[in-house]
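Standup notes
- DV: blocked on the single-chain target, sequence here:
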Amino acid sequence: MAQQDLQVDWLKCFVAVVEAGSLSAAAAVVHRSQSAVSMQLKKLEVACGHPLLLRGPRQHELTPEGQQLLGYARRLLALHAEAQAAFQGEVLTGRVRLGVPDDYASSYLTPVLKRFAPRHRGVEIELDCEQSTSLIPRVGRGELDLALVSRDHSRRGTLLFHEPMVWVGSPQFDAWHSDPLPIAVYEDLSLARRSAINSLALQGRRYRVVYHSSSLAGQLAAVESGLAIAALTRCSAPDHLQILGAEHGLGPLAPMEVSVYRSRASHGNKAVDGLQALLVNTLRQSVPT
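- DV (later): unblocked, structure below
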């Protein structure tokens, strides 16, 4: 029996499922229906002669053969994107100074950069990870070209999606039973801090700030040690922490409006144009609003 060629569309769907974590999320990334993505995966598995993914209720895990194929698939897709870019006419070059908060970097920025970098190898990207409250004024001053931020008013940048906020605590310590409630928060100007305190005020729930840090790692350390609970973006809440809600005596939190914010000084920079367009097209389509 002749060995089948591995089609680019099959490989794109395979990599998308691995990176997005589910068929539904991958379908939005590759702009296909969930059933079409599933069919592409089946065709790829038939061509390889091995199952590549173990289907679970929440996510898909790679089989040993899937893990082996993943490296080849990524290299093939990168080379394919490079070949496409070579025939697109204008080649992008230059530098993009990009900012992103820690909690959005892995979930939202990484998939975009994985698509952008192979296509535009002549573009140098300088990445700064800081809180939105620090990134927004830096974009305004022209120190950064673009930033993915939680916006502080309705006209700040181009709205991409609404990111839910959740209360999290360590199931080992039950800190949410304490009165006053111990909370870990970001810096004074943080929108997440404001959302947390407003929610507690609406409930009339007593609280005390026992830890504040501008870093996500600091917030997680405070929660994991049982020192406090915290209000985090859902994308940054690790699975080993418990999501808290009304049954724990905690009210809802206002979501973050996530936008891409661009400096005036960067207009006319075609490399910035390209990355901004990819951010908007990818995140508006792959993340529910």
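- Follow-up: The longest strand covers residues 94-100.
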